[in-house]
Amino acid sequence: MKFDVMKESFPQLIGGVPETLLLVIFSLCIGFILAVIFAQLRLSKNRFWSWFAGSYIYIFRSTPLLVQIYLIYYGSGQFRIFLQELGLWTFFREAWFCAIMALSLNTGAYTAEIIRGGIQSVSWGEIEAGKAIGMKPLTLFRRIIFPVAIRQALPGYGNEIILIVKSSSLASTITILEITGIAKKIIAATYAPIEVFIIAGSLYLVMNFIVTRIIEFTEHKLNPQFYR
Amino acid sequence: MNFGLLGFGIEGWGDEMLRGAVMTLLVSMAAYGLGILLGILGTFLKLSRFFICRLLADIYTTIVRGIPELLIIYLVFFGGGIMLARINALVFGGSGFINLPVFVTGMTCIGFSSGAYSAEVIRGAVLAVPKGQIEAAKAIGMTPFTIFKRVLGPQTARLALPGMGNVWQLTLKHTSLISVIGLVEIMRQSAVASGSTREPFTFYAIGGLLYLGITSISNRGFSRAEKWAAKGVRSE
C-alpha cells in the first residue's frame, strides 16, 4: 500500500464528486420527464404513439449505454456540416452535453417502463371513482393515478438511480473527468491502482448508500399506513 | 452513407463487424457462466447458517453492485498487470508492465458483476420454493442431495429463469465496457472501423443493431425456456 498516493489522490477524487453528481442529477431530472411522457404514450390508445414509445423504450433498453454515448458524441461528427447549419453543433461538440443526453435518454427508457408498471397497478375502481365524481383527465392523473403509481414504482426507481450513478462512470470514456475519469488518470500517473480503487470505490458506495437511504425514507413518507 | 463499406471483402467491414459480434457473444457467455457459478456459490453463502459466510456474501454483492464495472475493469487490468510485473521483476529480473490477456480479464470482471446479480436472483428463487415441500421431502426421508435434485433444484431453476434472463441482458450489455482495455468485440471493432472510414455514426449504429439483434434473439430464447419450464405448473 502506498499511503502517500492515497493521501494525495483523495482530494483529487473528491473533486470528481460534483461532476458525477451533476451528471446524475441532470440526467435523472430530464430522464424522469421523458419517462412520464413516454409511459403515457406507451399506454395511449393511439396505435402510432404507443408503437413509437415502445420502439424508443425497446431500442434504448436493448443496447449498451456505451453505444448510445459513442453514437451521440462521435456519431454526430458525421453530420457536422448539417448540424452546423442548424446551429446545433456547439452542443454536440461538448462532451458534457452528449453525456447528459445519452444518460437521460437511457434512464428515460428504463424509467418509462417502471412508471408504466406503476400506472398499470392502479386499480380500476379508483380511476372509475375519480371519473364518477367528474375529475378531468389531468386532475385524475395528478390526484389519483400519479400518486398511487409513484408509490408502486419507487423501489424500482431506486435501483434505477443506483444504476445511473454507476453508469455515469461511462462519461469518462468521452473525456469527462468525473470520479472514474480522475481515477484512471491517477492510476496511469502513479501505477497505484489498488489504492486509487479503494478511494474511488468507496465514494461510489457512499453515494449509493445515501441514495438507498433517501429512497427508504421517501417510501416511509409516502406509505405512512404501513409503518405506523 | 456508402453501403460498399458494409461488404464482406477486403474493402468492406461486414465480416469484421460480424467477427466482433461473435467475440461479444463468446465473452458474454463466458462471463454469464462464471456469473452463474458465483451466483450459486453466493446463494449457498447467503443462506448459510454461519454469520461469517453470510457477511462475506453480503460484502461481495454490495460492493460489486455498488461500484461501476468500468472502475473494476481498470482495477483488475492495471492492478493485475502491475502485480505480474512485480513478480516478474522479483523472480525473473525482468522489467516493464505486463499486459494481461484482455479476454480473461474482461470475462472475469464482468463475470464477477454478473455473479452478484445472479446471487440475488437465485437466492430469491430458492426462498420462493414453499417450505412445506422441503419439510415433506425431509419427512419421507430424502437425503439433502436428493432433496436438492428432486425438489429444490428444478423449482429454483424454473423460478430463477425470468430473473436470469435479465441478468443475461445486463451481462451482454456490460461486455461492451471490455472494449476500453482493447478486446476486439463489437464496440472496439466499430471504433476501429469508424476511425478508418470517418463514418462513426454508421458503424456505431451497426454496432447498436448487432446488440439489438443478439438481445432480441436471446429474449425469444428465454421466453421459450420459461414456457417450457412452466409446462408442468398448474395455472388457474
What does it look like?
The complex is a heterodimer of chains A (228) and B (236). By secondary structure, chain A is mainly α. Chain A has a single domain, classed as Orthogonal Bundle (MetI-like fold), CATH 1.10.3720.10. Chain A has helices at 3-14, 17-43, 47-62, 65-73, 80-86, 89-92, 95-120, 124-132, 137-167, 179-190, 193-222. In chain A, helix 1 (3-14) runs antiparallel to helix 10, helix 4 (65-73) crosses helix 7 and helix 9 (137-167) runs antiparallel to helix 11. Chain B is mainly α. Helices cover 77% and strands 0% of the residues of chain B. Chain B is built from eight helices and no strands. In chain B, helix 1 packs antiparallel against helix 6 and helix 5 (131-139) runs antiparallel to helix 6 (144-174). The radius of gyration of chain B is 22 Å and the shape is flat. The termini of chain B are far apart. Chain A binds chain B through residues 59, 62-68, 70-71, 74-79, 162, 166-170, 172-173, 180, 183-184, 187, 191, 193-194, 197, 200-201, 204-205, 208-209, and chain B through 62-63, 65-71, 74-75, 78-79, 82, 169, 172-174, 176-177, 179-180, 187, 190-191, 194, 198-202, 204-205, 207-208, 211-212, 215-216.
Descriptive keywords:
A: 228 residues, mainly alpha, MetI-like fold, flat, B: mainly alpha
Total strands of chain B: the figure is: 0
**CATH domain class of chain B:** Mainly Alpha
Put simply, the count of helices of chain B is 8
Q: How would a textbook summarize the main sheet of chain A?
A: none
- The percent of residues in helical segments of chain B reads over 70%
CATH-assigned fold name of chain B: MetI-like fold
Mean pLDDT of chain A: 91
The poorly predicted ranges of chain B are none
Domains counted in the coordinates of chain A: how many? 1
> How does the helix and strand content of chain B classify structurally?
mainly alpha
Known CATH architecture of chain B:
Orthogonal Bundle
Q: Tell me which protein chains meet in the greatest interface and how many residues each side has.
A: A-B, 38 and 39 residues
Quickly count the helices of chain A.
Answer: 11
Note the quaternary state here. Answer: heterodimer
User: C-alpha Rg of chain A, in Å?
Assistant: 21 Å
Shape of chain B: flat
CATH topology of chain A: MetI-like fold
Work out the strand percent of chain A. Answer: under 5%
